[in-house]
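cyclic pyranopterin monophosphate synthase: structure, please.
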Amino acid sequence: MFSTLRRAMFLRRFPVPAKRGFSSKFSDEINLRVLDELNQEMQSIFGAEPPATMDYPELNSSIGSLESTKPESSRQYEQPPKVVTEDISKLTHVGVSGEAQMVDVSSKDNTKRTALACCKVILGKRVFDLVLANQMGKGDVLGVAKIAGINGAKQTSSLIPLCHNIALTHVRVDLRLNPEDFSVDIEGEASCTGKTGVEMEAMTAVSVAGLTVYDMCKAASKDISITDVRLERKTGGKSGYWSRGE
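Here you go.
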């Protein structure tokens, strides 16, 4: 009965006009005004807004066509944004609320731990020949870089904020001139017996050694690249043995 009365009122007040050459935009504006006036009249009679779903197809069709013409940018905000949650349980340096934290290693066992890292410094032929002949103005490039790398490993916890201060038992840094690509190949190894690994110490060693090579050679060329800083192997701890490519 409610829907029949509504339809009768609509047809009484707004007879269907003869077809004319209205543009789609103009027709949409008329439909919106008609629906708005009809809703206001029904609310004044029954004391509440008419239900959103109409029982007669012509108005349903009009509403559907108007909704489909709304810009995509306005429709996308009608749905509440999705809350994306990620599993961060493996990120041990991140707390439950996302803040940075230092890992508590007091419950871990003391084990023998080692790590091997490497990097490459690409010099170019001219600088390579100067280093090979030990003719750089600052002196022995490879010798100074070797000492810098060892010292860098010992300073890792001062450079990397959340690293533990580890009592290293051994640090090795080797530098080799590679004539195939006119580079310096750097390899660094760190060892300790403790509760956490020495991967960062090994990678810091080769990184600092590579930076020192650049510093020793920058007067001859600024076009020097430090590349491929990476961990190659580690042993000890809960995760045990790991090697790149295995």
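Notes: The chain has a mean pLDDT of 80.
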